[in-house]
Amino acid sequence: MTGIERIAAVFAAEKTIKIMTHVVGGYPAVDTCEALIGTMAENGVDLIEIQLPFSDPTADGPVIVQANHAALQRGVTTDTVLTMIEKVRKKVDVPLLIMSYINPLYAYGINAIIEHAAEIGVDGFIVPDCPMDEPEPAIAALCTKHHLAFVPLIAPTTTGDRMVSITRHSVSPFVYAVLRMGVTGRKTELDRETVAYLHRIKEQTGRFVAAGFGIREQKQIDALTGHADCAIIGSELLRQVTGAVEKGEKPADAVAGFLEHLKP
After folding, report:
1. 49, 123, 229, 236: the active-site residue
2. Cβ-based neighbours of 212, under 8 Å, separated by 6 or more
3. What is the pLDDT of residues 243-252, one digit of tens each?
4. Potential cystine with 216: which of 44, 87, 222, 236 (Cβ 3.0-4.6 Å)?
């Protein structure tokens, strides 16, 4: 099964709304991060995005920024994360997507990292700052060549024509709908305008819609149900991880407890 097929199978499954979670590769430690991914898979998470640590994650709020810096300070590299993913892939069946800003991909080599990712069982890439309509580095085309999803991001200010243009460059069963302008972490209120925006994406792109930025509790997921196909949770999970570390508790237990309250 290819990465695109694995993701498509998840979205085709009979479940009211899917959940995608986020980890920063190697945070708070490599073995702990590996355990966190396993815990998420065991607790009903449908897709997991694994972020390559980067010094300037411009779309992320303070919680994820701190996790990126902490991982880098511990010496975590792109190779560290790829090795971890290779181990995790042998243990879990859920789709695993690499989330990265474009600089770490350039530093590793665009061709090299996509080929390596395909070899170790990565299913797709999410690159928030990738210029979708420039011919180089042609990340979307390379992902398609290796049967990996390249997930487009759509913002509330994106026009209908632009939505069509963005998705034309990628092969991905779903798009990532950014619920509000700004960075991750701050709670998002799901009002009528947001709901209309989500339906507009579906109409314009014909793709499944995963909604993220500020999702942290069950009532938000309930509010998204019927309007989006997937809820993305990132900063709040990292808050759980950091809080557990500070208390001397197991992060995996904290994450399992948190997810137990998010079963749709």
Report:
1. 49
2. 20, 176, 177, 178, 179, 184, 231, 232, 233, 234
3. 999 999 999 9
4. 236
